[in-house]
Amino acid sequence: MNESRSRTGSALTLGLGIAAWSLLALTIGLGLGLPETVEQDVYSRLIAVHPPVAWAAYIAAIVTAGASLVWLVPRTRSETADLVAGASAEIGVVFTGLMLATGSIWGRPTWGVWWVWDARLTTSALMLAVYVGYLAIRRVPDAYEVRARRSAWTAMAAVVIVPVNHFAVEWWRTLHQGRSLAQLTPGDDLDGAFIGTMLLGFVAMTLLYVWLLIHRVRVERMTSRLEDEALADAIEARRAEAVGAN
Amino acid sequence: MDPAVRLRAAVCLLGRFPALAGVDLEVAPGELVVLRGPNGAGKSTLLRALAGLVPVVDGEAVVLGHDLRVDRRSARPRIGLIGHASGLYDDLTVADNVRFWCRASGAPAVDSAAVTDALALWGVAGRLAGVVCGRLSAGQRRRVALALLTARWPDLWLLDEPRAGLDADAQVTLDDLLARARAAGTTVIVASHDDGWAESLGARVVGIVAGTTGSVPAVSAQREPAHVA
Amino acid sequence: MDPAVRLRAAVCLLGRFPALAGVDLEVAPGELVVLRGPNGAGKSTLLRALAGLVPVVDGEAVVLGHDLRVDRRSARPRIGLIGHASGLYDDLTVADNVRFWCRASGAPAVDSAAVTDALALWGVAGRLAGVVCGRLSAGQRRRVALALLTARWPDLWLLDEPRAGLDADAQVTLDDLLARARAAGTTVIVASHDDGWAESLGARVVGIVAGTTGSVPAVSAQREPAHVA
Amino acid sequence: MWRDALAVAAKDLRIERRSRVATHQVLPFALVILVLFGFALDPDRGFLARAASGLYWLAVLLAVVLAAQRAASIESGDGVADAMRLSGIDPAGVFLGKALAVAVELVALEVVLGFGVVVLYGVDPSGLGLLVAAAGLATVGLAAASTVYGALVGGTRVRETLLPLLFLPAAAPVLIAATRVTDEALGGAVVGASVGVGDWLSLLGVFAVLYLCFGVLAYGPLLEDA
Amino acid sequence: MWRDALAVAAKDLRIERRSRVATHQVLPFALVILVLFGFALDPDRGFLARAASGLYWLAVLLAVVLAAQRAASIESGDGVADAMRLSGIDPAGVFLGKALAVAVELVALEVVLGFGVVVLYGVDPSGLGLLVAAAGLATVGLAAASTVYGALVGGTRVRETLLPLLFLPAAAPVLIAATRVTDEALGGAVVGASVGVGDWLSLLGVFAVLYLCFGVLAYGPLLEDA
Ligand code: HEM
Ligand SMILES: Nc1ncnc2c1ncn2[C@@H]1O[C@H](COP(=O)(O)OP(=O)(O)OP(=O)(O)O)[C@@H](O)[C@H]1O
Ligand SMILES: Nc1ncnc2c1ncn2[C@@H]1O[C@H](COP(=O)(O)OP(=O)(O)OP(=O)(O)O)[C@@H](O)[C@H]1O
Ligand SMILES: [Mg+2]
Ligand SMILES: [Mg+2]
């Protein structure tokens, strides 16, 4: 991966990027084409964006945990794993924010308020809090290994919020939409249209996430490589001091 | 018989700073080594690294047969470290501290002869036993820590400026102890700025400057202190 | 001309414990006095009491003309104390610490020659200036504290084991500094366990045992440590 | 492991006996919180009685934060963390010991707070069996979780602030579940709730087990970094 | 005095810039608290919107505790307290400086929390003038009070727990007054309330002035005994 020394792009990411963005455009196009439903008029079209964003946030959280696990297992430990975890968490926080935003925008017409104290919404908000906390832990300055291990364990603990959030709608009664895939009724073409765009959006959002992730990781890797070089210089400097002193 | 400690080009980082930038050190079992070097040279870091408290990120590092880069913990039960800090709970009395740390560090039981003798030897028995450690004087804290070391008597001692804060009496006790350790074939590595003392111990002196082992610089050479970049 | 320090039967309590149980001490202006005594004798407490950090509850205590039992604060601006702790903010760089403490303690401005010279003298200029104090080595913290003292140059210096942690080079610097202080007529009171050094300074040695001033006990006499009641 | 755990717990409780932080400070603090809720939630509108269970557990949660901070600060004494790591004591033991000590303090706290709520908010207690079950599980879970996060932030110089940030969101499930069960027990059952008490209790149980395992596994590595 | 105050404030803010405790930890913590309130006060009964002002100020209060703890822990570094006392710096200056630093952090915090409440609790802000006035006075009062109590507990080894215990009850008046004024501003005026906004505002003002004077006078002696 020599070119990544200079650029964070590559044929792969280029393809990914194009795919992601075009699919996203398509989804939005289809979304806007969706019929207005009685109770929500145009806002029902948010279904093309909001759920996929939410799922992307989930994926980000899960990837963070997975990468952390990879790091924690001595045999598979690698700096990349730590970088992936961090980058994925950062993107995840963004997506979680978007999820809350789109959700609120949707909630305004649907429920008449930006926010209701609904289980799903609350757990979603907590999800944001948890990962902000995770990023805070990452930012505490320390030796690489120390910081990485501390963060990794935090991520392992944090990911629990995902299933909680996912099943929140079942565990306690909520205003929020149930898990639509679980209750998909084949044959109902209106539902079909919605679900279809939703799934398309899901694919698009996932690609977008992967694309962002790769770039972020490469940036991180470059900075860490720069740090390594700086470190090598620092070691040289320190040795030079010693020579100078004798 | 392989050495108690073997370092080759060992590197340790504090934050992003290479506090140790390539240390070579070989210590035979039962040997007494004194580390000396200017402030900030990396003596304390080296001792902490040997105790597995600071990861060695590069080079080779074997202590009591355990490779520190693979496993920092296995050697610890056989290591005793007296650092700048005493490692006592300020809110517990001397007696309670001793009881807990004996339990924790697999030292002999608190009421065993070894422990009581050690406490008496360092003059922290009697009245002091009931004093909360937070109230102790600097030297008294040192004495308690040293008493615990004496009672535990691990195989490898790492002493960071052990004389600091000790009164004339305790300094004599320390010298006796080191003599006993040598007789008992215990490996001891001491960091100290007190050259006269180091010589009186007849120890091998290893110089550390700016995180690397080198020849011991003469005082004059240090006039421009090593850590001023 | 009245003495810089005059204590008569001074008593200080730490908690309920009489750490000082009747200290008599008279120090003439410009005099260099070394306090010595077993661990826990009360040296640090005495120095802190002179600085007005520990109240004198009984007896007479006058420092630089101020009666400590009436007013513990007026003398302070003219006093400098180097204790076991460095008094630096761990989260600030050396430079920022120096800047703040110069501002706070009415020392010369941070960019004045006095300060820059002092920092250079103690080898804490250059690279170290940008390091967070929490990362400094024990000796480096000492050096910074001493540099601040040098820059401030108060009238009465209270040094608690100033050599502890200082490397050979810094120890020389310290000796030079004390010589200059003596020449400048600055009053200096040092607590130290290093008898050889005390003599080399040609200082008057005052013995403290169990919180009272007395003749300096010989090492043998200390075999039964003073603090074991 | 267990002997280590007991030694550590004994040590922490002895320190508590000497410094009386839990009894003289955490406990009053929690009561103060209850009173403040009273102020904040303008009583004239009288939510207090109805919201009592939620407020109770919220107060407990905040008190746990203090208890955990204290437990962590005990281990942050000069050189103590190093000594702990060097001693070769079983980290799992340390974890269980410290969690146990916190749990013991918590139980006392919860009882007193309970009386506090009864008196201040005028709820009349019922369904004690249920309450005890919920409190028991919640206590274990909170003690374990707070101890884990205590170790997590122990090394950093910003313990006071980082601990609440990490711990509170993590403990939210306990807050809900315990609140719902308490509602149930107090007869204020939420109509049409899709989940029954059993589910909430099991959620509490799962949480406790989860964090106990997590602590036993993670505490060692975390201590390394402290 | 004032130059000292500025030097101290600059120092504290520089430390904050370096350690980012307020922005990265206290702030998120406060937001978490808001969410937890939403949790604990079973929303379907929907008094959140109505209780919003009270909860807002309660969250602020708890955040102030953290900020104050941090401010106090800065001064508890090794030998720092002694150095402070020896330096002969004007204690009143130290007090004003530290209070100023806390106040600066508080303002930022209150703004963000404000948005949080608007979004989360669905209140729509009105009467901004009134709110700003109340917040301003409250901020000064809280900063001053928390700084005083910070010094009070600074010496003890149980800062984490003692500070909230002492500070929170003392700050209760601010909580009540600010809440009432906010209610008023948001138009949720309590019918038949015997006291008007003016009185509450003046209460806030009195509190602020009181603790400022108290701090200026008492800080010296408090530092002495710390
Ligand atoms: C701030 C408010 C909201 C938040 C935080 C939020 C959060 C979420 C989350 C986390 C998911 C993923 C669910 C999962 O699969 O686990 C989701 C999915 C979904 N949301 Fe929202 N949502 C909000 C508002 C809304 C509103 C107002 C609507 C429409 C009335 C809505 C409709 C949906 C739908 C249809 C799904 C996909 C259903 C599924 O398969 O789970 N959401 N939302
Ligand atoms: N983050 C950092 N940035 C720059 N330098 C650092 C950092 N952390 C540690 N250091 C340096 O690492 C060195 C640590 O050295 P160490 O404490 O081992 O010295 P030492 O030999 O024990 O000195 P002393 O004789 O004073 O005890 C110091 O020079 C310190 O300045
Ligand atoms: N609460 C207390 N109960 C019992 N003894 C106490 C208490 N507080 C302090 N002491 C004793 O007071 C003395 C304090 O002495 P100080 O620190 O001044 O000794 P020192 O001469 O500086 O000793 P060192 O040479 O070790 O520095 C110690 O002996 C300590 O045990
Ligand atoms: Mg050292
Ligand atoms: Mg002393």
Overview of this protein structure:
The complex is a heteropentamer, with one copy of chain A (246 residues), two copies of chain B (229 residues) and two copies of chain D (226 residues). Chain A is 74% helix and 0% strand. Chain A contains seven helices and no strands. The longest helix of chain A is centred in the C-terminal third of the chain and has 57 residues, at 189-245. In chain B, the strands form two sheets. Chain B has a six-stranded mixed sheet, with helices on both faces. In chain B, strands 2-1-4-5 form a four-stranded antiparallel sheet, with helices on one face. In chain B, helix 2 packs parallel to helix 4 and helix 3 packs antiparallel against helix 4 (138-152). Chain B is globular, with a radius of gyration of 18 Å. In chain D, 64% of the residues are buried. Chain D is built from eight helices and no strands. Chain D is globular. With 226 residues, chain D is mostly helical. The mean pLDDT of chain D is 84. Chains in contact: A-B, A-D, A-E, B-C, B-D, C-E, D-E. At the D-E interface, helix 2, helix 3 and helix 7 of D face helix 2, helix 3 and helix 7 of E. The structure holds protoporphyrin IX containing FE (HEM), adenosine-5'-triphosphate (2 copies) and magnesium ion (MG) (2 copies). One adenosine-5'-triphosphate sits between chains C (14-15, 17, 19, 39-45, 227) and B (131, 135-140, 165, 167).
Number of helices of chain D: 8
Number of strands of chain D: 0
Radius of gyration over C-alpha positions of chain A, nearest whole angstrom: 22 Å
- The residue fraction in helices of chain A comes out at over 70%
Give the integer mean of the pLDDT values of chain A: 80
Which oligomeric form is depicted? heteropentamer
Distance between the first and last residues' Cα of chain A? 42 Å
Ions, cofactors and other ligands present here are:
protoporphyrin IX containing FE, adenosine-5'-triphosphate, magnesium ion
N to C succession of SSEs of chain A: HHHHHHH
Given the helix and strand composition of chain D, which structural class is it?
Answer: mainly alpha
Strand content of chain A: under 5%
Total helical elements of chain A: 7
Q: Give the low-confidence spans of chain A.
A: none
Task: Spell out the helices and strands of chain D N to C.
Answer: HHHHHHHH
Name the helicity range of chain D: over 70%
Estimate the global geometry of chain A from the Cα principal axes: elongated
